[in-house]
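Can anyone check this?
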Amino acid sequence: VWSPSIAISEKDGQIKVCAELPGLSEDNVRVELTQDGLTISGERPGVQDDRREGIYWSERFCDTFMRTIPIPDEAQVEKVKATFENEILTVLVPFPRAEQS
């Protein structure tokens, strides 16, 4: 079972979620924001070849993953932005900070 590394931070009124997705393209990744949170899912296809002593063996496989990150109710989900660059998915969720008195 494979699961991508995910880093979550909050800065400048935004929640930033970064997922390392080695070997994946944008077409293999799905990002969805629901009441349960931010869900990142996808498939990582692969091929394993082995050639020894005149025997050729090849196996195709597909690792699937799904991660859900809770997002606060106050988040401005209609303003979410996602980018995928160099096998890194970055999702920015605006999150207004409460005024301190």
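Reply from J.R.: I decoded it. The first strand starts at residue 5 and ends at 11.
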